[in-house]
Design goal:
The protein is of the alpha+beta class. The chain contains ten helices and four strands; from the N terminus they run H-E-H-E-H-E-E-H-H-H-H-H-H-H.
């Protein structure tokens, strides 16, 4: 047994946690237990009604896909400018980004044509953060990719949207972190989060066994539930995340993989995963 394994098995948490040692891992240099801005950074604002500040990670790609799907429908009011927030460089802690998302996570969206009126009767830009909130905001604003009437269809769509928002942290922050980004392999957390990730994949595979999309069979049933789940789980079973395709035996989830491949072929999705992002710095 290695010295590291011995340390892991003998660790006893202190009564009070303190941030007094390097935590290791890919993002160790930017991780801190405090929120808020760390440097001044004015975010650029383009000419389009919507301003997206993001990165092409699974969470960021969710919004990319919906915006590109709206573009496919020719909705000019959904035009947007997209800017890169490089989380490895700490852009998410710039003052301008923290102002629109106090949680310092991508993506964040500002709608400069929201219809919100301030006390001076001027249009007030509206900031939205959290990927699920952004997808719901845009889908409802434009009346696309979400059932608008109360009832079974809307309930099912929103249930799967919330399923993704609650489940994906086990995949990304749990499995992905310990399998791909932790400073060294640790058996217990990898096993723990692998088991949960495979359970989630099985949930989706069984659900998609007899239907084309998350909420039905017809093209009109494709909605934000598909978009938000595909960005994480679709890409995972297509071998796009964590180089874990063989480890997770993703080919065994045949119905989920069929669904993932179907969505991957959509023109909007093809554009979204490789979306060019403008720099936030003008220097």
């Amino acid at each position: 047994m290695s010295h590291i394994d011995n340390q892991a098995k003998s660790y006893t948490p202190p009564k009070v946690w303190t941030n007094d040692q390097e935590n290791g891992g890919k993002f160790a240099s930017i991780n801190r237990p405090e929120s808020g801005s760390r440097h001044e950074q004015v975010l650029p604002v383009g000419q389009a009604p919507l301003q997206l500040y993001s990165l092409n990670t699974p969470n960021g790609i969710k919004v990319n896909i919906l915006l590109e799907e709206l573009a496919e429908l020719g909705i000019k009011e959904a035009a947007y400018d997209a800017y890169k927030i490089d989380i490895s460089e700490g852009d998410q802690f710039g003052s301008g980004f923290v102002e629109i998302n106090p949680n310092s996570k991508i993506p964040a969206l500002v709608d400069h044509n929201s219809g919100t009126i301030d006390a001076n009767k001027n249009d007030e830009p509206l900031a939205v953060f959290e990927s699920g909130a952004i997808l719901m905001y845009l889908a409802e604003k434009f009346g696309q990719f979400i059932p608008m009437q109360q009832g079974r269809a809307r309930s099912e769509c929103l249930s799967w949207v919330m399923w993704q928002m609650g489940s994906a942290p086990y995949l990304g922050g749990g499995f992905g972190h310990f399998y791909a980004y932790a400073p060294y392999p640790m058996e217990y957390p990898i096993n723990r989060f692998t088991m949960e990730t495979k359970r989630q994949l099985d949930v989706l595979d069984k659900h998609l066994q007899n239907q084309r999309y998350m909420c039905g069979d017809s093209e009109s049933d494709y909605n934000i539930a598909d978009i938000i789940i595909w960005a994480w789980y679709g890409q995972l079973v297509l071998g796009k995340l964590y180089e874990a395709k063989e480890f997770l035996q993703v080919d065994s989830y045949e119905h989920l993989k069929r669904w993932a491949q179907t969505i991957a072929e959509r023109p909007a999705v093809k554009r979204a995963v490789e979306l060019p992002l403008n720099p936030i710095s003008q220097s």
